[in-house]
């Protein structure tokens, strides 16, 4: 029969607590944790005014710089505390004391700092926040339980050989994690440099875009090379497959490569720049951004069209601001045949006066262009400044002035009409319905 000796169990618990908790090592480590925390508070109190001063100094110098200082202000105390704890670890190790509890606390603090910084940098991406939190807490837990090195050893035992290089499960995992970090860092740096280039007054928009794209591609390529080296892959092993890989990429990525090369051509020859008003394939709007694969064109109604760069090379593109920001508009107006045509032409020219953005020089003119079925057709020709702000609004104001002037002077704008002349009415009678013989 099972017997439970309570007194013996209590004695075992007490003995374990005496051995692992109530001893000099544990007391020293707990004291070291509290001491480093108080010292971190003191250092943080001394450094905090300088951080706040820096925070106020960058309030009007960009969102990214302000965000960086805000993150530093949040994690400054934990960083100071964890640095002091690792220093205390070294001190206790040199004095011959155990430091397991101190090491566990420092590991958990490291995980918290990594998670807090990442959450601050990527506040809206819940997926990546969870991934980073899981990885950080897993590493911290393994390190706290002294299982990190055995786990790494197990992962290194699983692997395979490619040529002269041995690839292990540990190298794949570490390479993937570091590759993600490097890729994210490359995008962060490229975006930062892109904003700095956009603030430059000495570079044209096309050169700014070209440099930012080249920097982005270069940083991503370097990140990829570093990742492959960390995994343990020797790039020379791909020499045998380079021909087949090139053919495969040529067919599979033909459009992507074509769009990328077309984007580089557009940036180099400066035939298309951000801010240009263009018309391509029935789409009229202003170039907002030039990307590696596509160009963003924003229309007057707020729609953004992502047009592949290849279309700007292979199709006809109307650039309203390529070498001259001025655009000439031609608007055909019909008047009745009994109209004083010369008066109508003078009134059409007069209608351009006072319309915003219609230029006085070159002088607006009216030309008689054709005799239509129902009207005498006169074409108004005038020049418009800054077509990026639209031409339909100018056309509307001009035609409204024409309508008012024509009404005031009795000039009729005709509408199509058809006259039917019946020369003979067919007979209606018996003979008409008589069937043929």
Structure description:
The protein has 437 residues and is an alpha+beta fold. It folds into four domains: 6-146, no CATH class; 147-240, no CATH class; 270-319, SH3 type barrels (Roll), CATH 2.30.30; 327-408, Alpha-Beta Plaits, CATH 3.30.70. It contains 14 helices and ten strands. The protein has a five-stranded antiparallel beta sheet. It has a three-stranded antiparallel beta sheet with strand order 8-10-9, with helices on one face. The protein is elongated and about 130 Å long. The model has no long low-confidence stretch (mean pLDDT 77).
Question: Would you summarize the structure shown here?
Answer:
The protein is an alpha+beta fold.
Helix proportion range:
55-70%
Q: Judging from the principal axes of the Cα atoms, what is the shape? A: elongated
The largest pleated sheet is described as: 5 strands, antiparallel
Mean pLDDT: 77
Structural class: alpha+beta
Keywords: Cell membrane, Membrane, Transmembrane, Transmembrane helix
Main location: membrane
InterPro entries: LSM_dom_sf, MS_channel_C, MscS-like_channel, MscS_beta-dom_sf, MscS_channel_2nd, MscS_channel_C_sf, MscS_channel_TM-2
Protein name: Mechanosensitive ion channel protein MscS
């Amino acid at each position: 029969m099972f017997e439970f000796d309570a007194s013996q169990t209590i004695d075992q618990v007490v003995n374990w607590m005496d051995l692992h908790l109530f001893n000099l090592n544990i007391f020293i480590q707990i004291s070291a944790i509290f001491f480093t925390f108080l010292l971190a508070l003191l250092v943080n109190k001394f450094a905090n005014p300088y951080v706040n001063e820096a925070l106020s100094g960058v309030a009007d110098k960009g969102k990214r710089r302000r965000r960086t200082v805000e993150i530093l202000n949040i994690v400054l105390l934990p960083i100071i505390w964890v640095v002091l704890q690792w220093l205390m670890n070294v001190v206790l190790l040199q004095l011959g004391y155990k430091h397991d509890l101190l090491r566990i606390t420092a590991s958990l603090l490291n995980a918290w700092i990594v998670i807090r910084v990442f959450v601050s940098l990527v506040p809206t991406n819940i997926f990546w926040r969870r991934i980073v939190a899981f990885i950080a807490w897993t590493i911290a837990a393994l390190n706290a339980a002294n299982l990190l090195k055995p786990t790494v050893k197990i992962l290194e035992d699983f692997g395979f050989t490619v040529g002269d290089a041995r690839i292990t499960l540990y190298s794949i995992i570490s390479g993937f994690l570091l590759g993600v970090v490097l890729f994210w860092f490359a995008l962060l740096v490229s975006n930062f440099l892109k904003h700095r280039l956009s603030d430059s007054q000495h570079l044209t928009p096309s050169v700014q875009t070209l440099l930012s794209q080249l920097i982005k591609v270069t940083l991503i390529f370097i990140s990829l090379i570093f990742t492959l080296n960390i995994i343990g892959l020797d790039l020379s092993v791909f020499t045998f497959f380079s021909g087949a890989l090139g053919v495969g990429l040529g067919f599979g990525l033909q459009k992507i490569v074509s769009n990328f090369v077309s984007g580089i051509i557009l940036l180099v020859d400066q035939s298309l720049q951000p801010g240009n008003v263009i018309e391509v394939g029935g789409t009229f709007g202003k170039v907002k951004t030039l990307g590696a694969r596509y160009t963003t064109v924003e229309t007057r109604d707020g729609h953004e069209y992502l047009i592949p760069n290849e279309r700007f090379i292979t199709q006809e593109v109307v650039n309203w601001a390529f070498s001259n920001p001025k655009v000439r508009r031609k608007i055909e107006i019909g008047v009745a045949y009994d109209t004083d045509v010369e008066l109508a032409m003078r009134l059409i020219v007069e209608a351009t006066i006072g319309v915003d953005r219609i230029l006085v020089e070159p002088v607006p003119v009216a030309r008689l262009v054709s005799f239509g079925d129902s009207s005498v057709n006169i074409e108004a020709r005038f020049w418009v400044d800054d077509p990026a702000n639209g031409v339909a609004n100018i056309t509307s104001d001009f035609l409204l002035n024409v309508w008012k002037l024509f009404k005031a002077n009795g000039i009729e704008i005709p509408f199509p009409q058809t006259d039917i002349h019946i020369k003979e009415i067919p007979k209606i009678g018996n003979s008409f319905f008589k069937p043929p013989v």
